């Protein structure tokens, strides 16, 4: 079927997809500061009026464009807290090394310091990214593998903290020896 | 002495100080994206030509304006690695809770992902911030208080990692109970 014959609904979906794709492109290239409705309109060929009809604000557009960022990997089920934590941590390290969201997240963290709507976006992304750690922690607690006074927040901070520190602050390589030490150290303290 | 009678050198110093102060103001209010030479010129009353005479680029101006950010606190000397690490970590937590640089650093981390000159700025700030951890770690090693296979990088990642995670990612309060647990956990693993 020729494009001119497409239903209005199909054309609307195609416009929205183009706008979201260009928003994510700009976000990847220049961070949140690099996304303007003018530029998204120019690149996607969708008018600003149409963009604003679908998303009432730049923040709303950013929220939807980021909705696939850091989508959580499947939760491992190796039978032990140690095995699950190692698998999850290695997957997180791999994403920090190579996923596009790892270069985009700092601009969202920065925006969250100042813009409440984007602080909400950041909170959602963070919750989604860390959710699997919650699942394996609760499972370990149910099996009695976790010290009684330890909460999921401690597990996440003990594992993700050092990984994030290396990726975005000391900017050292996230090599597998480091990742292994982080997991072993966390297990010594949390079990 | 009236201002009109000031030497050229004094006037130059006063202009530079005004430019640096306004740059830091804009940085605090809106992150690196909020700093433009136009706006710094407007607010400081110093012409763009003069600004560019002192700083060849916006990045060079940002580097100098940030030179006092995260200036390292005095290195504690309590006589033990545990005491020193606790004192340093509490001071870092206090700065993360209240210092202005804690709201500015995310924009520098973000810029470091894309702009090499600002990656250099970030590396300098980070090195300055973490330097005291290096001093107390080396002292502990000399006294035989540290496991032989542990490097300063591990100490920094084990302590600053969870603190940074709470401040900028999970955005939970950096309460003193959490800070104490981070120090105790680090000591269990590193000693």
TrEMBL record, chains A, B:
<keyword id="KW-0238">DNA-binding</keyword>
<keyword id="KW-0804">Transcription</keyword>
<dbReference type="InterPro" id="IPR050109">
    <property type="entry name" value="HTH-type_TetR-like_transc_reg"/>
</dbReference>
<dbReference type="GO" id="GO:0000976">
    <property type="term" value="F:transcription cis-regulatory region binding"/>
</dbReference>
<dbReference type="InterPro" id="IPR001647">
    <property type="entry name" value="HTH_TetR"/>
</dbReference>
<feature type="domain" description="HTH tetR-type">
    <location>
        <begin position="13"/>
        <end position="73"/>
    </location>
</feature>
<dbReference type="InterPro" id="IPR011075">
    <property type="entry name" value="TetR_C"/>
</dbReference>
<keyword id="KW-0805">Transcription regulation</keyword>
<dbReference type="GO" id="GO:0003700">
    <property type="term" value="F:DNA-binding transcription factor activity"/>
</dbReference>
<protein>
    <submittedName>
        <fullName>TetR family transcriptional regulator</fullName>
    </submittedName>
</protein>
<dbReference type="Pfam" id="PF16859">
    <property type="entry name" value="TetR_C_11"/>
</dbReference>
<feature type="DNA-binding region" description="H-T-H motif">
    <location>
        <begin position="36"/>
        <end position="55"/>
    </location>
</feature>
<dbReference type="InterPro" id="IPR009057">
    <property type="entry name" value="Homeodomain-like_sf"/>
</dbReference>
<dbReference type="Pfam" id="PF00440">
    <property type="entry name" value="TetR_N"/>
</dbReference>
<dbReference type="InterPro" id="IPR036271">
    <property type="entry name" value="Tet_transcr_reg_TetR-rel_C_sf"/>
</dbReference>
